Amino acid sequence: MNFKVIGTEAPRPDGREKVTGAAVFVADLRMPGMLHARVLRSGQAHARLRRVDVSRAQALDGVKAVVTGARFQRPFGICITDQFPLARDKVRFAGEPVAAVIAVSEQVADEALKLIEVEYDPLPVVLDPREAIRPGAPLLHEDLGSYARVAGINPCPGTNIFHHFKIRRGELEETFHRADHVVDREYEFPSVHHVQLEPHGAIARLSPGGDLTVWSSSQAPFVVRHTVSRLLGLPASKVRVVVPYVGGGFGGKSDVTIEPLAACLATAVPGRAVRLVLAREEMFDGTVIGRGLYARYRTAVTREGRIIGEEILLTLNGGGYGDYAVNIVGGAAASATGPYEIPNLKIDAYGLYTNTPPTGACRGYGHPEVHWACERQREIIAREMGIDPVEFRLRNILGPGKSNALGQIMEEDHGRVDLCIRKVVEDLAGPRYFAGRGHGPGGRPAVRRGKGIAAFMKAPVMPTNAQSGAIIRLNEDGGATVSVGAVEMGQGTYTALGQIAAEALRLPVEMVRVVPFVDTEVSPYEWQTVASHTTWAVGNAILMAAADVLDQLKVAAGAAFGVSPEELEAGEGKIFLREAPVVSLPYSRLALGCTRSDGSAVNRPVIGRGTFVPSGLTYPDPETGQGNPAADWTFGCQGAEVEVDLRTGEITVLKLVTAIDAGRIINPLLARGQVLGAAAQALGSTLFEKLIYSEAGIMRNRSLTDYKIPGPEDMPLQTRVIFVETPEKTGPYGARGLGEHGTVGVPPAIGNALANALGADFYALPITAADVIRALKGKGGGLRAQTF
Amino acid sequence: MLRPFDYYRPRTLSEAIKLLSETGAAALAGGTDLLVNIRSGKESPQVVVDLKDLPELHGIHLEGDKVWLGALTTMGEIVNAAAFRGPLGILSEAASVVGCCEIRRRATVGGNICNASPGADTAPALLALEAEAAIRGPGGARSMPLPAFYLGPGRTALGPGEILSGFFIPRPPEGSRGTYLRRTRVKGMDLAGIGLAALVIPGHGKRNHEVRLALGAVAPTPVRAREAEILLQDQVVDALSLTRAKEVLRRSISPRATSLRASPEYKREMAGVLLEMALSKLLGEEYAG
Questions:
Q1: Domains of chain A
Q2: Can you tell me the ipTM of this complex?
Q3: Which residue of chain B has the CA closest to A645?
Q4: Shortest Cα distance, chain A CAs vs residue B140, angstroms
Q5: Which fold has domain B179-283?
Q6: Pairing of strands B47-50, B6-8
Q7: Would you call A688 and B185 a contact, using CB atoms and an 8 Å cutoff?
Q8: pLDDT single digits (tens) A668-724
Q9: Cross-chain residue pair B188–A714, CB shorter than 8 Å
Q10: A356, CA 20 to 30 Å: which among A226, A270, A494, B115?
Q11: What is the pLDDT of residues A627-639, one digit of tens each?
Q12: How far is CA A158 from CA A161, A247, A589, in A?
């Protein structure tokens, strides 16, 4: 196919606004008569609420309302309805909202918070999911069995397990009997935070007529609408959710976070807008956190280096409420093998309630967590068996005709993970690549270098009926305005979707505008902007809407020319006669109703619509996990070269390479940016990031002073992104998702590079300089490190 | 959330001293600590006294055999000052790693010392240079060696109404060289997990007349490491003396167990490593250590 717009580096329409600071985010909005809310958060990680006395706060000048959990009795929850906007009988994590003050200013609200008296009866605290799963562990949700939940969720009442997901394939016991080699290891990916640049914000107003509007920094305006309408007992049509630009989401603004609370607060002061914008510190313990997985892998391998069976136990920290961690459990299990065919499998994935803030979606959604384990495990197996790690991977690699852990048979168009591996190895250069122990570059004995790779795969984890829509209105100048329900949160989605629309409409990209906000009252429905599925799903909806537009144009032009629509073609903003292209009408004449010479109208305004739902997805079987829940797979491989200072333990990542088969690339510049941004984020969780709690469950590093993320100085001097473009048959112009994928392989690639450099295996992230020193001194142990 | 306060910007030292004598008054220099503390509620002054218009607190110049460094000199100005190259370069090296570029344009050396953080980057450098703190207050002018200025984490010898006006820094003999090395969690902006300043004053031949060492973030205040210094004084630094000095240095520090920036175990290890790295940098030799 010859593309005019697809594959070009079209500039971002939002670029200038954002670079100059003119772009408007929720925190910038001001409403007439707007009030300000501040939240009193629990200082206890697990306790019964004995008394919340707000009388002194209420009496303070400027305070309009003080609300507590007593006011709101309906629970909510995306998968399990297990939480309230404000704690009622119990608090389950430090940071949970206990009361909120609405006042004329944030400052008055802050003063009033100090006047609220709360009495707690402390309960035993459990922070580690491996402890929370044990019988006799402190129980967080006594009523788990009675909670409403969506299909496919499998809680175990009377325990902290809110979801148990199983995969069973083949015969495991017999497989381990005939194995020539068995490798058994445990890995840890700690809880992290997304550290979005923009704080979570919501402004809510209940109109005198009973309509509720929420302006929000959400990735999921339609989920917010659904949740809020149910919470307040309003029809969905009376809840309007508006999302302007979002300053970074990474999953931490998906589903719902602070919006149910903001909506409830608005009902306390009808007619007045209430603004709730979190401080940086509150983002850490007042929204959702990410990751938090322990993984135990036991692998059976033959002498020939074939993986014949694997037993995997995944224990996910869910925090105080199930939130969206529920589906991470299944997503992590589905990808736990990595991109390999393993005929015999037993995978148990548990989501556990603990007394940390709830775990939500986080760029990669379970995949970086399990790949940290499985790709370290692959490296260790290869080393123990004396097989080249690249060769070992390729011997077991998933490809056309082979089946993954879910029993899905891979096809040609799913892409080429083998090619991605080869490209990364080639780029990391060659012969010295796996020469065993690391070496110091000339004359620097205090330094060791090493290289490592990790292959990966990822599917969007989503409901089987995740829906997307697009509306295209043709304007009088022949250009098009495209409305979608997807949120622009920095990833450049409106640029990519604009390119898809322009290509499909045969228009120059400048003639297409994607509406730069979502308003549930006018925007077409969208499940939510997550799972790297927007280009794929919304792109498909746009293709259908564009086809609808072209059909309408051809019918109109056919009527004007007196020919049948089949004789017409569209190109360069015109409809023309195939046999005689000079006979043509520009879109501009047809867009809003073409008229004949006598003034009579030929056609109606052109508005195209397109809707998309993935076809053929089914729930996995509850006993075996087999089924077709994953719509498409994106494969790739990442490689790292590291340098370690043996004196200080300082780790420097010299090079990061990613090869990804993301199908057809719509905009190479944005695509590279997405992959690199993801890799940088994952580099942070590999080397620096971990949420630290006191024994009582209080988060100790809830600020950017003590929760360090990588800066420019930490980025490798060399970064490379290689696109392998096997077109996806279900994707618009062959595109597949790539927004999260750059996070998936970085931790194990660096971990493997460190193992090769130092002769030491690290099992827990982050790997710090102190860990390196301990390992070099042979003081490892547990999950921290072991020398080999 | 910034709580309201009265803001004064006095033009004379006596006015500033008067304002700061009141309870609930806080001195503002660059504000990179004070404003953060007010926002977080750690400090809630009723009166903020901005010192930036006081001429006595500015400037870098020679006074006899000492360099005068005004308390309001910013980190950026120190980095660019000709006075802080050569023997005094240790201070500009320390100032160059404070915060980020934007912070270095505001943060002052006086503020860095008055904040009395155990990990202040300029403190080990000033300790190694044996700087004296110059103080102005209701009782007139006084000065004291920097170690006496530090009373504990966040606590200094400044009394009510007293202002740290600057430092007198004796110029080390020509040929002296210093360096400041530290360990941080990330390579970019971060607070020191441990910092070490070393100043070598040459003697005859390979013998060093004096090696001065000071550390940050290893004790309640930044500290000189006199015990380790003695082992290196009037010595040729060799593998043996270095090993002994490293051992003494490791033992002499008392890091806090709960630091989020570095564990006591790592700090002890690094105290020795940074010493060795500093000496090999300053003496141009690698030690097997």
A1: 34-123+200-277 (3.90.1170.50), 290-462+620-787 (3.30.365.10), 466-612 (3.30.365.10)
A2: 0.95
A3: B273
A4: 38
A5: Enolase-like; domain 1 (3.30.390)
A6: parallel
A7: yes
A8: 999 999 999 999 999 999 999 999 999 999 999 999 999 999 999 999 999 999 999
A9: yes
A10: A226
A11: 988 888 999 999 9
A12: 8, 40, 68
